User: Fold these one by one.
Assistant:
Number 1:
Amino acid sequence: MTYPVCGLKAAVAVFTAIALMPLQALAACRNPVYLTLDTGNMREAQRISAILEQHEVKATFFLANEKTTTGGTSLDDSWQPYWRKLQAQGHAFGNHTFDHVYFRGVDADGRLTVRPQFGAQASQTVKWDEAQLCGEMQRVQARFQQMTGASLDPLWRAPGGKAPPAAMQMARRCGYAHVHWAAAGFLGDELPSETHPNDKLLAQALKDIRAGDILMAHLGIWSRKDPYAPMLDPLIAGLKARGLCFATLRDHPAYQKK
C-alpha cells in the first residue's frame, strides 16, 4: 500500500513527536522548588548570580533600595547592569517596598503603622493609608522599569515576611500578591554563623526541603560573618540530585496570572 506524500509527512511528524516525548518529559519541571532572594546588602549578589547561571537555575528576586557594602544602594545606577542582565536571563522580580518598610500594625481608623528602614523616614514610625502603600510599591516598579525596561511581576514580600492582613489586602488592590516561604525553605542566612554554620544549614535544607516549597535567602546579610552564598552551589546540586528542579514564582500555582 502506498501513502500520499502529505500523509507520509504527517505520520513522520507524529512518530517524531512520540519519540521526543521522553526527552520533553525529562526537561519539564515536575517537582519544583522556588528559590527567592531578597536584596539585602548585595555583598553576595555577583557570586549568587554566577551560581544560578552555572546551574541554569531561575530565581525570583524581591527588590528594595537597601544600603550596600559599597556605600550605595541596591537600586542605584551602579546596579543597573546587574538587574538588566538578570531580567534578560529570565528571572522573576517582585516588590520588597522601596525603603524596606516594616509593618507594625493597623490603627482603629484602618491606617497602617509602618517603620521604613531606609530613606527620608528611616527608623521613624509613621502612618500610611492605602494610597501611600501603593505609592511606596510604585517607586520600586518605576525604578525597575527605568533600569531594565520591564515591569515587576505582581508579587511582593514584606520585609521580615510579616504584614497584617489589612496590608496584604491593600497590596493586592495595588496589584501585588504577598509571598511568604515554607518553614523548610528558610535557608538561615539571617542566623549567626557561629551557631548556624554553613554546613549545618546545608544539611538541614537538603533533608527537609520538599517539592513545592518556596525557599528564601538574601543577596547579602550584614550580621552574618560566614556568608551563606557559597552553600547555594551544593544546595542546588543536592536538591537536583534528589529529583527536584527550580522554577520562578511565575510558575507557582498560587501566583500564576489568571
Number 2:
Amino acid sequence: MAVYTWRGRNTRGELVQGQLEGANDTGIADQLMLMGVAPVHITLKIAKEKKGADPWWERLSQQPVALEDVLIFSRQMHTLNKAGIPILRAFAGLQASATKPAVVAMLKDMQASLEQGRELSVALTKYQPVFGAFYIAMIRVGEMTGRLTEVFLNLTNHLEFERDVRERIKQATRYPVFVMVAMAIALVVVNIFVIPVFAKVFEGFNAELPLITRGLLAFSGMVQTWWPLFFASMVVGVLMFRGYIRTQEGRYKWDGFKLRLPIAGDIIFKATLARFARSFALASQSGLPLPQALSVVAQTVDNAFLGSRILQMRNGIERGETITRCASATNIFTPVVLQMMGVGEETGELDALLFEIATLYERDTDYSIKGLAAAIEPILLTFIGSLVLLLALGVFLPLWNMGQAAMGGAGV
C-alpha cells in the first residue's frame, strides 16, 4: 500500500485536495469517485512501509481509538446518513478526514467488510471492545427497522452524556488525588531523609524519648530497612487484586463494594442507573424486544452487581411479569422511579418515562458530583492536619523537653 496525493473538483466545482492510501492510482480514483470528487491529478507520495521503520515501536506508540473518536464517528455518520450519502462513500470520506492512524485503519477495515457485502453491525462486531455490545445492538436494530439515522443521533447523545459524566468526575477528583499523591511523596521524603537526621540528634540526649517520637523513629527505621519488601508486596498486592476483579466473582463483589463507598458510592449508583434508564429507553424506542434489550443493557451499565439485577428483571419479564413488578423485586429503584415505570406501562409511554427517569438520575448525579469536592475537602484537611500534628509532636517534643531541662538546669 502507498500514499497518494490528489487534487480534484467536488460536486460544486470547487478545487479540493488531500491524501489517500491505495494499491494504485486507479484505486485512488475509485475512492474519489465514491466521495463525489472528480480526480484531476493523482501522484504517488510515499510508500506506507518505510525503510528502516520499526513497526513494533509504531504500534506501541500509536494512540488507541478512544470514546471521543467513537463519538465523532457517530455524529459524522448521523450527518452523512441524514444527507442521503451511501455508506461506502461515507466511509471513504471519513477515512480522508480522519487524522489518527488507529481510526483510519479501523475505518479502512470496516469499509473492506462492507464492500464484501456485510452489514455495518457485522463490521462493527470485530471492534466490539471499542464500540461495546449496546452500540452494536442498536446499529443492528437500526438496520432492521430502517431508522439508522435516528439510531446514530441517539447514540451520539448517549455517548456525550457518558463523556460528560466521566469528565466531571475526573475534574472533581483531580484535586483530592493530587493532594494524596503529594502527601505520599512527603511521607517518603520525611521518613528517608528528615527523621534519620533527628534520630542522630536524639541519640545524644541520653534520656527516654516520648512515645510518639519512638514510634516515628521505629517506623522510619523499618521503612529504610524493609522498603524493597514493602514495594514488592505492594506490586504483588495490586497485581493479585487486578487479577481477582477480572474473575466473575471478584468483579461482582468489587462492583457491589463500590456502591457502598461513603461518598463515591452514591455517585456511581446514580450514574449507573442513569445509564441503564437511557440505554433501556433507546433500545425500547428502537423496537428491540424487552428481554433482548435488557440483556444488552446489562452489559452497558458496566457494573456486574447492577447488571445481575437487570438480568433478574429480564428473567421476570420472560416469565410474563410486568416491568414494574420486576424492577421492584431488584430493590435498586426508588419508589418515585417505580411509580413512573408503572405509569409508563399503563399509558404505553414507557420510552418517554424512561427518558424522564434517566434525566432525573442525571440531575442527581450532576448535583452529587458538584458536591464531591466539597465533601472530600474536610476529610483531606483533617487527615493532613492530623499527620502534620503527629510529625510535629514526634520531632519537636523531645527538643522542647531538652530546652525545658536546659532552662531548669540554668535556673538552679
Number 3:
Amino acid sequence: MKLDTSKASISVLGALNMDLIMNLNRPAKPGETVVGDKFYTAPGGKGGNQAVAAARVSNSESVSFFGFIGDDNYGSELKNYLKNEEIIIKNIKTHKNSHSGIAIIFTTNSGQNHVNAVYGANEKKDLSLVDVFNKNIKSTKILITQNELDEEITRECMSIAIENNIPIILDPAPYRDNLDFDYYKMADFITPNEIESEYMTGIKIQNIEDAKKSANLLVAKGIKNCIITLGENGAYFKNENFENHFKPHKIQEVKASVAAGDAFSGILGASLASGEELNKSIDTAIVGSALSVTKYGAQESMPLYDEIINAIN
C-alpha cells in the first residue's frame, strides 16, 4: 500500500551525507575517552533522509532529489542508495574536487543524538542546480528543503516554487543565525524542533504551553504555517486561523532519534502531495516519525507506509 502520488511530484532539495554513527552512554568530555558499544555507517543528510521518508510511503519514482556529492566512494554509495529506494537521481550533481558530505553522530543509550557534520560538496555555490530544478518544475507538487545547501541556491529554488504556486516545506535546520525572517516567510510550512524554535524565538520549550507561545510568536512574525515537532510529546501546529496540539504516537523502545525530524518532514510532504488534508497528514507524519526511532540508522530507519497504517490501526 502506498500514498497516491504521481511521478516526480515531490522535489527534495538538500544534502547527502554519509553518517558515521557511534552508540555510547554519553559523549566524551574534552581530554576524556568514552568507549561505545556499537559503530556503523549509514546514508544520511537531512535532504537524503527526507527523500527516503517520502519515497517509502509514495508510489515509485514520485521523489526527485536535487543536490551534490563528491567524486568518491561515499558519493557513489549515497547515490546508489537513493536509486535503490526508487528515487529519481538524475539531478544529483557530482563535484570532482570535493569530498562528499559526512556526519559523525554520537547516539546515547537514552536515544539522544549529537550530530557533527562536514558538508563537503553540499556547500558548493553551484547555481546550475537552480536551473536543473526549474526545468523539472512542471511535474512538482511540493518542495521539501532545509538549510543545508548554499543559501542562494535554496532561496532561488523556493522563489521558483512560489512563482509556480508550489507549496514549500522548510525544515530550518541546521539553524543559521544569519538568515532573516523574509527567508522563512517564503515557506508555506516550517517544521522546527524544540531547539530550532528556541533559536528562532528565544523561548525555551519545556512543555506544550511553551510550544504554543513559540508558535504564536513565529506566526506573528509572518510564518504562514508553523509545526513545532516535540519528539515524544507530538507536535504543535499554528497558523492565523487554527492551532492544535497533535498527540504523540507512543512506542516501546527508542534506538536512535537521529532522523526523526526528517521522517516527519518527508512523510508530511508526501501526504500533502497525495492530496491528504493537513490534519491527517500531520498525524501520519507523527506516527512515521515515532516508528523511525525504533530502528538504527538514518535513511534506513524510515518506515514503510504499511507500517504506519498498521501502527495507526
Number 4:
Amino acid sequence: MKKLIALMLVLTLTLSLFSVIAENDPAGDLPEGPPPDRTFGTLSMLNMTEEEYLALISARGLIGERLGVGGPRESEPPEGQPPEGAPPEGAPPEGQQPKNTIVYYDTLDALLMALNAGDINNIEIYQSVARYLCATNDNLVIGASLDTGKASETFAELVQNGINGNDFAFLMMEGNAALRDEFNTAIAAMKADGTLDRLVKEQIDDLIDGGEIKPIELPHFDGAETIKVAVTGALPPMDYVAADGTPAGFNTAVLAEIGQRTGKNIEIVVVDSLGRAAALASGTVDAVFWTRTSSKAQEGAAMTEAELEAVKAGVQASITEEEIALMDEVNERFDFMAYRAADMPEGTIVTEPYFSDVLVPVMLARETPQSK
C-alpha cells in the first residue's frame, strides 16, 4: 500500500516542462500486439542496475499498451493495417512476454556505434538529446511514445513524467553543504530573473533547430576559490565537450553563470559516466553533473501516513478506476521506492534541479514501423 501511495504521490506532484510527443508516428501507424525481443542501449549514468532498468522498460511498456503508443489513431485503421487490437503478422502468441535486454555504454559514441552496428535495437536517451541527435543525423529518428492526445491526456503525462522524468542537478559530498547552498542560491536567482529560460532557449532549443554548438568562456576571478566540476560531455547539446576538450553546451553555460554569481572560478573536468561518483568521493572534484528522479518525488518521504492518505484520496478522486488499476500494475512491475533512493550515493547531497527531461527511444530510420 505504501508503495502505491508513493507512486500516486509522484504522479500527482511531478510535472515536467517537457511532454513526450509522437515525433515519428503522427498518423498512429504503429503495429499492434506484443513487441518483439529487443536490446536497449543506454549511457551508464542512470544509477540503476540492468534488472532495475528492465523493470522500468516493462512498466513503461505497460503504460504504452494501456494508454496508447504513437500518435492518435483514426477511428478506422489505414488501408492494409490490421484492425484495432489485432496482433501484427509474426507477433508472439498472446500472453507471451518479449525478452528485453539492456546494455550500458560509457560514452555516446560507443552507444551510437553499437546502434549502427546492429548490436542494439535502440538507445534510451533524454528527449532534448534525442531531438538534437535526430536533427543532426538523418539516419536517426525518435521512436514511439505515449499518445497524449487521448482522453486521459493529463494522466498520461503524469505517468510518463513520474516514471521517465529526471532532474538535472549537481552532486556534492555532505561536507560541502555550504557550496551546495551557494549553487542553490544562484540557481534560484537564475530561475527568478529568466536567465535559466534564456539559456535553455539558446543552448538547447536553438541548437536543436539548427544552431551551432559554440565554446563557452568560463569567468575567471584572480585569487578566488576554484571549484572543480565533473561532466561527461556525453549528452549534447546539454552536457557537451568538443573533440579538442573545449567545454560547451547548456551545462557549461549554467556553470559559467553560477561562477559569475558566486564569484568562484569553475574548472570543468571530463570524467566518464562510471567514474563520476568515484571522482567525487576521492576529492578529485568538488561536484559532478548528476541526473536523478524528480525532486518532487522526494517530498513524500517527509510526509506522515495521514498526509499520504490525503494525497491518495485526492488522486483517486481525480482519475478513473481503470487508471488507479494501471498505477497499481505499474507499481508491481517497477519498485519506484527503490528507484527513488538508488540515485543518491551514500554521503552525498544534491543541488536544486535546473532542468528536467524525459527518456525516449532513438532508433535507426530503417528500423521504424513506417520503413518496414
